[in-house]
Amino acid sequence: MKSCQPRFLSKLTGRTKFLFFTLVLYGIMALFNPAVTLDALSYFGVMFSKVLPVLGLVFIVLFCTNLFLNPERIRKHLGTDSGLRGWFYAIIGGIIISGPPYVLYPMLGELRRHGARNALLATILYNRNVKIHFIPAMIYYFGIRYTVVLSLYILLFSILNGKLLELLVDE
Amino acid sequence: MKQAFLQTINLFKSMLPMLVGVLLLVSLMHQLFKNQYQHWFTGNYFLDPFIGALAGSISFGIPITSYVAGGELLHAGISLLAVTAFIMTWTTVGLVMIPLEAASLGRRFAVVRNLLNFVFALLVAMATVYTVVILS
Predict the structure, then answer these.
(1) What's the gap in Å between the CA of B23 and the closest CA on chain A?
(2) Where are the domains of chain B?
(3) N or C: which end of chain A has fewer CB atoms below 10 A?
(4) Does A75 have pLDDT greater than 90?
(5) Same domain for A153 and A92
(6) In a domain, A67, yes or no
(7) Taking CA atoms, what residue in B is nearest to A110?
(8) CB–CB of B5 and A63 under 8 A?
(9) CB–CB of A51/A100 below 8 Å?
């Protein structure tokens, strides 16, 4: 069946198409609300300038992962046979790793490509919610009892989350 | 070493359009929804946690921003249950991020993880609030 999309679109990859449609959305938004569109663009500029140094760091980490970590080593620490040690690494890793998710996804994708378990990757992402350096702020807004209880539940549910995700994704 | 470098460069080249697209989308959503959260809640004790979880799912930012927004919502009289659901989905669910997550970790992984985290946000909120009530 012949595709009804323009020829130039069919040449683009799915990821570039996504960027193209986002730009189209901005174009449409600019017609109806130019002020919001300009604010969004300047917010994007600020965010992107903050992301650039982090991307540099991510590049180095990915390069080192590709250079030094072989699939065997990753499978040993985060693979299906990693056992309790794998869960421990995932929980601690999730708490320690800071940075926005859009820079974490490529790194976790590489770890998975090298043999890391889906359950442990999901656990790492869930534990991003417990951030040691933000705990004082949480205590300020919600109290120490609430902060401790919520943090403990996040740790507990991160394991449940990982197990369930693995069950549903790997079936 | 050259192979590892080229592998990383290729990964970056393929991720960059998606990353820029997601950041543009996040910026637009942020401008459209900032300072709007308060008006979304109904005062209904059972419906508000769901609305809180939805609001957190379409928002994005560092966790501390969700604490500040959550603190404001508490001051405005929104229930702790709804606010907890909101701050939970803020970091664990990212509707706008799904295309990027799917590109790195697979579509099934991204969809299942976000759905699970949405449900878990409501469960964690309930468990936390009731435990705090019991403890106090």
Answers:
(1) 6
(2) 2-135
(3) N
(4) no
(5) yes
(6) no
(7) B104
(8) yes
(9) yes
For chain B, say whether A132 makes contact (Cβ under 8 Å). Answer: no
Q: Residue with structure tokens 């390069």?
A: A63
Q: Give the number of C-alpha atoms closer than 13 A to the C-alpha of residue A88, restricted to the C-beta side.
A: 5
In a domain, A18, yes or no: yes
Q: pLDDT at position A171, please?
A: 63
Asked whether the beta carbons of residue A66 and residue B8 sit closer than 8 angstroms, the reply is yes
A28-56 pLDDT, tens digit per residue, is: 999 999 999 999 999 889 888 887 887 78
Is residue A144 in some structural domain? yes
Q: Are both A54 and A122 inside the same structural domain? A: no
Same domain for A90 and A50: no
Residue A76 belongs to a domain: no
Total of domains in chain A: 2
Q: Do A169 and A88 have their domain in common?
A: yes
Interface check for A44 against chain B (CB to CB < 8 A): the answer is yes
pTM: 0.79
Provide ipTM, 2 decimals.
Answer: 0.82
List the domain range (segments joined by +) for residue A34. Answer: 13-62
User: Which pLDDT tens digit goes with each residue over B65-94?
Assistant: 788 788 878 888 889 999 999 999 988 898
**Residues 6 or more apart in contact with residue B74 via CB below 8 angstroms:** A141, A142, B80, B83
Interface test with B, best of A15, A65, A103, A166 (most B CBs within 10 A): A15
Assess whether pLDDT exceeds 60 at residue B40.
yes
User: Given pLDDT bands bounded at 50, 70 and 90, which one contains residue B112?
Assistant: very high
Residue A109 near chain B (CB below 8 Å): yes
CB pairs under 8 A between A and B: 171
Task: Report how far residue A72's alpha carbon sits from residue B32's, in angstroms, rounded to the nearest whole number.
Answer: 47
The residue ranges of DSSP E strands in chain B, in sequence order, are none
Residue B68, pLDDT score: 79
A148 and A87 share a domain? yes
Amino acid at B83: V
Residue B23's pLDDT band (cuts 50, 70, 90): confident
* Residue pair B115/B83 in contact by the 8 Å Cβ criterion: no
